[in-house]
DNA sequence: TTTAGCACTCGGTTTGTTTGAGTGCTAAAC
DNA sequence: GTTTAGCACTCAAACAAACCGAGTGCTAAA
């Protein structure tokens, strides 16, 4: 009644912050007395109670049941994350840990992401998530055909992002030679480099076939494979680490809730969508039912895209109870993503292997 | 006392089987009356009780507490799996399901395994596991260096099993040309093909360097990468699907137990060891603490290696409570592995991509 | 507007009771 | 010797009553 529904008074903010902090810490509802004890407030518990009642009316707090303390609502958490949070400063120790562990894994982006998600999980004590988002428009890069046996060769394709994919191929008639494969390589590179998968047309294929002369029988198979390689497999990927940590938190001791959450993680789709759709390069905090993902009602997902040259290569994230230690999680993800960027940019050998190979 | 500790009488077998079956079904301890009801036995519950007491003495049954029914012991399950089990016959419907779903995924072994583990999970309603075991002795196969930019190229290496691995490389001095890379390719293939990683010696490296002439500066980097590629990354991989299913079973409603189990799954090491060490091509059933993996006390792991040309390419398995429906699980894994073998053998494009890319 | 005081609420815990499935044992029957 | 019927006993699970206490809302005074 003091504040006319608009902004929160300083005291309200202080009380809200105290409640969120305390609830993150302990997971229990917070009462007026407790707030008073741990905060520097020049008023009595009764006043705090009044304030709390108002905060509840405004939607920032809620009461699990009539005679219990207050718990932050979704809106409360949102406000907390957006304006109240004090950024957690990582200790030099933690920074060193990140550096050491990530450096050891440098090489494949996949491995880096996975390692980062593991780290995120163990540092924050929530569940870590490593994500390779869906990508939709890759251009064809370079090809190379590798001879193995007279009827058996490997086609290696590099896309415009430098991802390497490969496929074994066999011919019906054993006509392969190193020479014919070299020709194949040359012709493919001449005609296909720079195109998108959709730009491979029948006339183009026929032109290629014509140019291959006596080895034209190879072309049909090859094109199909190329199409497959560039198009189909990249539906994104997601790896989870530290699910066991969820169990520490009493909010997941309800088996049915936990089961639902695990089911969502299992499907991967929802979360993958969520992350793939995010346009922001910054850290996103998705609290409970803010997202389309219904199940995560008392959970929160924090993730940070890993961007290079304007392209989103992946994301690392953390999943945990709604009362997550946001300050620490944000700092950790920030730190990790910084390090990943460093590694990706600075290193000589980067992004090896096939980023999609493991899917 | 009737049987002198050696073999089980027919009646004892019948009773044991009845108890295991019933316990698999319901998860509760089984009493003498229940056995009598559901079995064709010409005796009274008292007799059954006597028999059960003897079976307990022999170690096949145990009592959760003094006045409860009996539950099969580890030994009991072992005996059941080894001799009592009636193989479950898959319905044609189920067989068709396997075929359809696996065919759609043909291509990468990784993908097949993953799909198979998903299938195994959904068909048995336990947790599915897809495993790529550690491999220890790979020989170097073919190389190919792909030119990208004056200071940037990709090295593609194929090992003797046909696995393709790749790595991006950059040079300090931009001296790369298509020609120099072709030379590199040729020299590497000449000297390294057929060797194991351990056989790359310093003299050999120097010889290669000499042969590369003006481009010898590439050699050092390349060799290091080769070593990495062939050696380090292959610590096996393991993917889990359907963890949420575990929660259906009351044995995992104890949070601490569940947490331990998830922790073991998380580490992956133990299970990977277990599977990698198995020399058998047949289905293995690991019940509870039979294995070194301590945690799985009330769980069982059933897995079947996927073998091609005498080489173990991977394994699919199922993890669930000790009172698992072994008949169904065995049949499912048998069926799946059969189909995988078919696909792997019959198909022209096989085992593409990097089997280890996703690690 | 703040504060002190007080009655009230209500989930959680403790404690006690009941219930019933299941056993082991014994003595009689086959 | 084996099987059976009967009975006393055990013990976890389910239910109920009682209690506790943190926390609230409200009122009346400061």
Summarize the structure.
The structure is a homodimer of 359-residue chains. With 359 residues, the first copy, chain A, is of the alpha+beta class.
Fold and architecture overview:
Two copies of one chain form a homodimer. Chain A has helices spanning 10-26, 32-38, 45-58, 74-84, 92-104, 109-124, 178-192, 202-212, 217-231, 243-246, 255-267, 269-277, 326-346, and strands at residues 61-62, 71-72, 127-132, 140-149, 152-159, 164-170, 237-241, 284-287, 299-308, 311-321. With 359 residues, the first copy, chain A, is an alpha+beta fold. Chain A has a five-stranded antiparallel sheet. A three-stranded antiparallel sheet of chain A has the order 4-5-6, covered by helices on one side. Helix content of chain A is 46%, strand content 18%. The first copy, chain A, is built from 13 helices and ten strands. The longest helix of chain A has 21 residues, at 326-346. Chain A is elongated and about 95 Å long. Chain A has three domains: 2-84, Arc Repressor Mutant, subunit A, CATH 1.10.10.10; 92-134 and 236-351, GAF domain (Beta-Lactamase, 2-Layer Sandwich), CATH 3.30.450; 140-231, Heat-inducible transcription repressor hrca homolog, domain 3 (Enolase-like, domain 1). Mean pLDDT of chain A is 81; it is low at 1-5 and 348-359. The structure holds a DNA duplex (30 and 30 nucleotides).
């Amino acid at each position: 009644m003091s504040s006319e529904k608009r902004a929160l008074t300083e005291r309200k903010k202080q009380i809200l912050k105290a409640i969120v902090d305390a609830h993150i810490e302990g997971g229990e509802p917070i009462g007026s007395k407790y707030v008073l004890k741990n905060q520097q407030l020049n008023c009595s518990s009764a006043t705090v109670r009044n304030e709390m009642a108002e905060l509840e009316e405004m939607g920032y707090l809620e009461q699990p049941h009539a005679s219990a303390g207050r718990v932050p609502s979704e809106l409360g958490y949102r406000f907390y994350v957006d304006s109240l949070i004090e950024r957690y400063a990582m200790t030099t120790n933690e920074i060193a840990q990140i550096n050491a562990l990530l450096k050891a894994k440098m090489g494949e982006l996949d491995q880096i992401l996975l390692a980062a998600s593991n780290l995120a999980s163990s540092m924050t004590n929530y569940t870590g998530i490593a994500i390779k988002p869906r990508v939709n428009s890759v251009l064809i890069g370079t090809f190379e055909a590798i001879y193995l046996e007279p009827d058996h060769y490997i086609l290696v394709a590099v896309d415009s992002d430098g991802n390497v994919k490969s496929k074994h191929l066999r011919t019906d008639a054993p006509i392969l030679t190193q020479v014919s494969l070299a020709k194949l390589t040359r012709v493919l590179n001449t005609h296909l480099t720079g195109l998108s998968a959709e730009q491979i047309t029948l006339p183009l294929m026929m032109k290629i076939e014509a140019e291959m002369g006596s080895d034209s029988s190879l072309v049909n198979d090859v094109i199909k494979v190329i199409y497959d390689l560039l198009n189909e497999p990249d539906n994104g990927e997601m790896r989870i680490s530290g699910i066991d940590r969820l169990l520490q938190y009493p909010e997941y001791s309800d088996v049915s809730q936990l089961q639902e959450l695990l089911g969502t993680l299992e499907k991967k789709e929802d979360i993958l969508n969520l992350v793939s759709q995010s346009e922001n390069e910054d850290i996103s905090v998705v609290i409970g039912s803010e997202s389309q993902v219904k199940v995560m009602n008392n959970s929160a997902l924090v993730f940070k895209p890993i961007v290079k040259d304007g392209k989103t290569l992946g994301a690392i994230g953390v999943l945990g109870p709604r009362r997550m230690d946001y300050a620490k999680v944000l700092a950790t993800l920030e730190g990790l993503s910084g390090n990943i960027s460093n590694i990706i940019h600075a290193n000589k050998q980067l992004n090896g292997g096939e980023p999609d190979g493991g899917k």
